[in-house]
Amino acid sequence: MGSAAADALLPLDASRFAAESRAVVDFLEVYYRDIESYPVWPDAEPGHLRTLLPDMPPEDGESVDVILEDVRRHIIPGLTHWQSPNFFAYYPMNASTAGFAGQMLSTGLNVLPFMWAASPAATELEGVVVDWMARLVGLPECFLFSGGGGGVLHGSTCEAVVCTLAAARDRALSNLGHEAILRLVVYASDQSHYTFQKGARIVGIPPSNFRVIPTLAGSAYGLTADSVHEAVKADVADGLVPLYLCTTVGTTGLGAVDPVRDLGEVARQYGMWLHIDAAYAGSALICPEFKDYIDGAELADSVSMNPHKWFLTNMNCCCLWVVSPALLTSALSSNPEYLNNVGGEGAAEVVNYKDWQIALSHPFRAMKLWLVLRRYGVAGMRAYIRRHVDMAKWFETMLEADERFEVVVPRRFSLVTFRLRPRHEGRDDMEALNRKLLVAINGSGRAFMTHFVVDNKFVIRMVVGAAMTEMRHVQDAWELVQDKAKEVQATP
Amino acid sequence: MGSAAADALLPLDASRFAAESRAVVDFLEVYYRDIESYPVWPDAEPGHLRTLLPDMPPEDGESVDVILEDVRRHIIPGLTHWQSPNFFAYYPMNASTAGFAGQMLSTGLNVLPFMWAASPAATELEGVVVDWMARLVGLPECFLFSGGGGGVLHGSTCEAVVCTLAAARDRALSNLGHEAILRLVVYASDQSHYTFQKGARIVGIPPSNFRVIPTLAGSAYGLTADSVHEAVKADVADGLVPLYLCTTVGTTGLGAVDPVRDLGEVARQYGMWLHIDAAYAGSALICPEFKDYIDGAELADSVSMNPHKWFLTNMNCCCLWVVSPALLTSALSSNPEYLNNVGGEGAAEVVNYKDWQIALSHPFRAMKLWLVLRRYGVAGMRAYIRRHVDMAKWFETMLEADERFEVVVPRRFSLVTFRLRPRHEGRDDMEALNRKLLVAINGSGRAFMTHFVVDNKFVIRMVVGAAMTEMRHVQDAWELVQDKAKEVQATP
């Protein structure tokens, strides 16, 4: 495009769209082909990009080729390559051909299912897909639309948590009056994701009313019913109101699992809202061998999991299921005139997703998850998960057979937590040593891992879960860990 | 894919990725070519899709061709076609070739700039792009990173509003103590988007402390400083604490504009947080002829606008700028151990976007907005906006020249509000008549418009803003409106 007149833009001209989109597909094809050759974690300095780019966008439009060349030169070298098969950090953030195809369709159609009438088929597909996922994950019928519950596709767990906290809060305040907001208490473990603390603060719970209950190695860092019970009893004695209990299946740091049934019984006894956060491990629950981890889910009020983590669904997509949609929508609904639909009056019984979430607008995420489920099938997804679990198991076995290392917490899914054993006593030495080991691993560019600290132990986290990871990458990572361990142990 | 083994998935095999992605590009190419032939608003019954789809995903994966055929048969006919050139409803939700390309890159790379270290170039590009947009929109330097402020790309205005409300609330409570949450008051007009009311409720402001201040035809439905001042004085006299004032440039129903400078002065006087919501009209502010509408922006604490509406940036993308990032991050930040970055310690001064938003995770939206700005350029975007404004002006002129119609509120941007004038006195008759007119327009499938109610008037809203809309579509819409008016006036 030369000097830009409006007509020259033709922003959705079909053949121009196709030509430029194909150029991007070609670009990404090369990216995926070459991705192993990039250092997983870039060697970038803060501010490096700003110095390379101008202060203002160009006056006249540029060609897609020029822009893609800049992506290649300026952006790619400064990225952490989350899709690299050698990415073992955080938790995975899966891309896939089907997830990408679904996002393309969603982005291309660019419709908004915020109300049924604003795009009927998009709203309905979301209802179908969340029911599919609920059945796959093994949730009880009460979380399905057919069982009086229902689900929605949010962008993140944090959003799901804020919405459920608001629903729980408003249920409580409708009985107690708004002043009681100062007396509401939220319970989580010291292993819960910080999103619960952030979410509780966002919805106005006093920060001093957030209880972080310690967990212990003896219960594999799962929350015990007794410890929650003690905390709740103390609060009730102080005139406070237990509101919300967070449980996690597969915690962020260590992959720990809270005992859902035991905690559910405590929650029931005190009328608390029980949420199950299965952001990462929810994907594993589609395999029958992991189903016991959500035994007792019928005692929960809400469950969430992120297909954008380990379920081949490109960013972003978080399933939230609730037993009582009415509690959610009464906290989040509104009916301004500009959203009433003339001619859509017969649709009183439909789902309007704007009332299930923070935002009004809501991308057509169902298309993406639908594509993944249909393209890969249930058997394919189970095999995909099991392959990662098996590779993690192999890595754990290698560590266990090597006396230099210890596995810190027994592996449950595809996260292995390990560290170098101390050669000498003293915590400082060990932390420094393992920190040096992690820096050496990541500095090699051949793998990227992150860490966690538990019981004063500096732990290296190695998660198998990137879509491209094969056995040879895990074997390479194990060799890398051994080599770097030798290096750091050799230096004083 | 036949019977699915894990190896057969190859979720990111480069050549398979390219082949299947090209099939989707081809599908969308046909969709855009044929889009004019679809009824804009579908004739769909609630529940229609669920009966067509099975209760469970398939056991084995299916081919992309089979899935695309189902999209064609089952999904497309049930969609409201937001990208149709005959879509004149709500506000637009622009797709474009460049926006799509940017989303493809973001989705394909699938990196997460939630922390600088988690993808340095993606974080930095976001900083560059929000500064570009701030300059384009004409915001004062205090909203730029270089001026001590800064911006972030959220998914929606609602998210931006919740974050700024939380920041304002926590600033107040840090002085007054958490009990004061019961005394905080938020002010908006009866034309403000309901997201403010929803947001205030989400962050725990008592619903009875949300003031909806009436606007009048005499001020073109803009909020007056006097009316706000009166409301604030009354609340202060009652011992309440004025917290947050919402102003809008281009309201949802009528496109009204609040006088930013006058309201900013009231906000300053009482120490209130001032937010400017320019979700739709923010795009027009890139044209110098509209800049006066944000005169006084230096008195605001935050500003938001949605490139996903009228700026050719596919869903979703909302720019939020703040004068004080520290107020935002102190309400939303947290530093759990699993996010500390070994080897990234030198990066203390970097932006970590997880602390600027509700969620931890955060798609690489900057890529999308960067593509749009570079591909179309400043001149191209200005011409694009002006072309829509000119078409809306033409439509308004036609209405004014036809004595059957009245323009209800003078047009400011690309929204025209109109109705049939009464032939007989009496409100019931007029509302019914105009409602019939709107049903007839939308029922034709040839255009889709929505409505609003102001001062008991049922108003039809006609927004020019879809990316494909050309003069001939607006002319067709005008013919359609005239024909349907004749029809409904002829029937008793």
TrEMBL record, chains A, B:
Name the Gene Ontology biological process terms: amino acid metabolic process; carboxylic acid metabolic process
What cofactor is needed? Answer: pyridoxal 5'-phosphate
Which SUPFAM superfamilies does the annotation name? PLP-dependent transferases (SSF53383)
Single GO molecular function: carboxy-lyase activity
Name the InterPro entries for this protein: Aromatic_deC (IPR010977), PyrdxlP-dep_de-COase (IPR002129), PyrdxlP-dep_Trfase (IPR015424), PyrdxlP-dep_Trfase_major (IPR015421), PyrdxlP-dep_Trfase_small (IPR015422)
Q: Write down which residues bear the modification named N6-(pyridoxal phosphate)lysine.
A: 309
Q: Which UniProt keywords apply?
A: Decarboxylase, Lyase, Pyridoxal phosphate
A cellular component term, taken from the record's GO annotations? cytoplasm
Entry similarity comment? Belongs to the group II decarboxylase family.
Q: What's this protein's name?
A: Tyrosine decarboxylase
